[in-house]
Amino acid sequence: MDAMAEFVVGNIVRRVLYIIREEDLSLTTAAMVGLNLSAVSDDEDDADRDDQPVLSATAIATASRNALHPPSLQTLLEDVPDSAAVQHTSSSGRDSEGKSKSADKSSRNRKLKHDVVEAMNELIQDVSTCHEPIVVRVEHIHQKYLFLEVILTFGSSRTVLQFLCVAKERKRSFLVLVAEGAPRYQGHLLAKELVTRGLQTTLITGSAVFAMISRVNMVIVGAYAVLANGGVIAPVGLNMVALAAQKYVVPFVVLAGSHKLCPLYPHNPEVLLNELRCPSELLDFGEFSDCLDFGSGIGASLLNVVNPTFDYVPPKLVSLFITDILWSISALLIQCGDAMHSPVSAITVSH
Amino acid sequence: MDARRVSRAVPRVRQVGFFTPNELPQQPGPTRSQSGPPNSFSPPLSGSPASNFLSPVMIPPPRHLSDNLGGRTAAVPVPGRENAGEHATVGSYNPSESVLGLASPPSSRIGDGELSEGTESSLGWYRRSNSAKYASSFPGGGFDLSPVKQPESVAGVEAKNPLPEKSEVQKEEASNSKPLKAKTTKAERCALQESQRATKAASKVEANKSGTSGGAATSKPVKQPPQKKDGPPVASSIAASERIGVDRLAEKERKKDVPPPRMQFDDESRVGKAKRRSVLNQPEARNRVELFRHLPPHKNGTQLPYLESKFFELHEKHPAVYKVGLQYLTGDLSGGNARCIAMLQAFQEAIKDYSTPPEKTLIRDLTSKISGFVSFLIECRPLSMSMGNAIRFLKSRIAKLPPSISESEAKAALCSDIDRFINEKIVLADKVIVRHAATKIRDGDVLLTYGSPCVVEMILLYAHELGKQFRVVVIDSRPMLEGQKLLRMLVSKGLSCTYTQINAISYIMHEVTRVFLGASSILSNGTVYSRVGTASVAMVAYAFHVPVLICCEAYKFHERVQLDSICFNELGDPDAIAEVPGRVYVNYLDNLTDKQKENLELLNLKYDATPSYYISMIVTDYGTIPPTSVPVIVREYRKEYLLI
């Protein structure tokens, strides 16, 4: 669970930054719209304009420049004096405007902050309830694919758990095969949860996955992160499952909340996007300690114990992604991921 | 029958196990030692023989566990072979030392006088097992390390316990039965014999292939009632019906042209029959996976005290065979080669101690006896295919004996045949395989292996001795964790190793240049039937374009065909999955409620089938062949068995 933070936290931070920029942009465009209107009525009574934010041409240029090249957060939120400098270099006779400008700026900042906080609350809401839109899809899947079938899952994922529970509520009969994810044994947890909810569960070892895959109808797993090319960072062992599923042409479905979409691209993901855990999970302390001793004269120990946390599943092995905003193949998912993180080209794909 | 038994006032010393008529009751330690242990009526004492068998396994601290894992490697390595040879000559399969040599300190059934000895010997065994693991892989090897004075202690035990309370019913020892028969009234005996002969004639008609096997079955109860004293009378009648049923099963096994369909355990009627005639209690069908109902359920070691108590009721089981069966049951012996060798040596012992009953021919009677042993071993643990082939070989040798041969010559011939089989098909075959495979290893290679195949271990050690520079990656999997044995072996020899679990195989496969795997058997369509997880390893290696080499002796090839891992497999202990030994905080599956338990099934497969397109090459004692050549070898070289 702590490892998830590595990707999802990064994603959330990027989302927040994006929110801030977006809010600022919307405020700016609203201001620009207001400006255009006011420019039209330039000849109107000046007194009326005191109440409205009035922007000079340079300010307009600044705003449009902002739209194209998003300013840093610092400028947005901390009222850095470059816009104030713009004010000063503006044409004379605008002191009152400058004052109102700064007043507007601070009020604008307050508004910006208010909007940002609102948006972040929405984000929090989305993330915590990301399961719901996903499990709604259960109905579709079941109608199309499942009737007294065998589902294989791996390790433990809350999304998958809820998915299967909803499926059970819809009175679909199926059998769940849970592969324990040694050495963390998350599969045991999932199996316990499933039997508590009354689902017929069989627990198998990770080595038996290939033996059983011929009788499995669908593989449903959760992911730690979904990368920019559609690859999946998943608990270790899932690449083996994905290869077996490809061999036997079993659909491999990945459930992921949209907060798990990362803009990272996997260059050498086994090494760079991975974490090695303690070897004591594989070998008890003291068992092979004479061989693991790095302090011995040679310098390199004879025995090296490898205990990775993550596995990388290439996008071509994944049949379907189901997220809370869409369910799609990986290609569309890439664009969706881009939309969330970059201010450019917001493509919204709705289901 | 009961009246006859009660009439005898003085309990007599029983002859235990096999013996030839000429030998005195002063048996060598092995047989008498079986009578040494007190009756099984007192469970705590009978628990101690169980702990003898389980002591290598059930040492709680993981340190000892891993020691014993090393101590009981299934590998039969070449360097250990010399020791094995010595042991074979000394007392090829010395049950006394094996039974009592592992006396764990707390079990003081030997008596207080020998307690210290037992303690010393067992500790010595443990110490030696640390240092001489390569030798202890051989079934007799581990036991022969115990001090020689053990048999003397055994003799001391016998002196103390002259009265075996449980009746020990033997096979057709005519000399033993004669003094007993005198005690029964002649008329009753004749009547019984007539009835038996009638049933024998009836069964002869049915069982045409092994007609006298049924006769042998019915003739047994003739001997049994006179000899029985306190033993439950029920056992003999069960044994009688058991004989007939078992021999029919045996004759099916002997059909050579088509391998017989396995017994499907979801067939109610046959399961019922098997239950009635089985020696072991069938475990309850709890948590049985629907998909695998056709496979026999796992019999775990909790049966051991029960089996110990039944030891003296098993009339027809030679103690060596019984011992091997119990070792299979507890998992002390695992690995195709080790199991096969242990079984063949137990059969050698049985043959040596065998004597033909008066009205029987040696060929048929011995064949039926072997079939009886085999059925017992199957009950303990389903046979591996290598063992099946070995049994077929033995039966064909027995059938080929000329009828005019004398008994001692026949026995000597059979024993030498068994020795030759072991030597040629296993020992020499391994050497050839090692030579071939070592040529495939180059300097700078990173070799991956899975589990603990004995042949691969030999290959790696041999290549290391040749001076090649390479790294080894050992892949391991739950719940057996066999890779740790291999790992300890390799590290002690100075190879640099990487150890990981099967989940991480995609992570590690980037570095690997070759994959060496072992096999339990190779089927006629090139499918490799081996430890569960092998298929996953081969698949991932194929996906990463790494060549996969299977190293397997040719006697393990089989003419069966299998498409997936489900139609034929072996189920292991389901509880081994739920428990994670040594790590308490991940035992999520403790304390399940009943409602939870009825939904949860645990599946522990032992084997899986690797499709042939994942395999690059198979290294056998006939050379290196592609997977498609396996049926050729099966067809061409199978005749060898018959023509030797």
TrEMBL record, chain A:
Keywords: Cytoplasm, Initiation factor, Protein biosynthesis. Residues 84-111 are annotated as: Disordered. It holds the Pfam family IF-2B. One of its GO terms (molecular function) is guanyl-nucleotide exchange factor activity. It comes from the Eukaryota. Residues 94-107 have a biased composition (Basic and acidic residues). GO terms for cellular component: cytosol; eukaryotic translation initiation factor 2B complex. InterPro entries: eIF2B_beta_subunit, IF-2B-related, IF_2B-like_C, NagB/RpiA_transferase-like. Belongs to the eIF-2B alpha/beta/delta subunits family. Component of the translation initiation factor 2B (eIF2B) complex which is a heterodecamer of two sets of five different subunits: alpha, beta, gamma, delta and epsilon. Subunits alpha, beta and delta comprise a regulatory subcomplex and subunits epsilon and gamma comprise a catalytic subcomplex. Within the complex, the hexameric regulatory complex resides at the center, with the two heterodimeric catalytic subcomplexes bound on opposite sides. This is Translation initiation factor eIF2B subunit beta. The lineage of its organism: Eukaryota, Viridiplantae, Streptophyta, Embryophyta, Tracheophyta.
Automatic annotation (TrEMBL), chain B:
Residues 1-277 are annotated as: Disordered. Gene3D superfamilies: Translation initiation factor eif-2b, domain 2. Residues 23-54, 118-134 have a biased composition (Polar residues). Residues 163-175, 244-271 have a biased composition (Basic and acidic residues). It holds the Pfam family IF-2B. It comes from the Eukaryota. Belongs to the eIF-2B alpha/beta/delta subunits family. This is Translation initiation factor eIF2B subunit delta. It comes from Durio zibethinus (Durian).
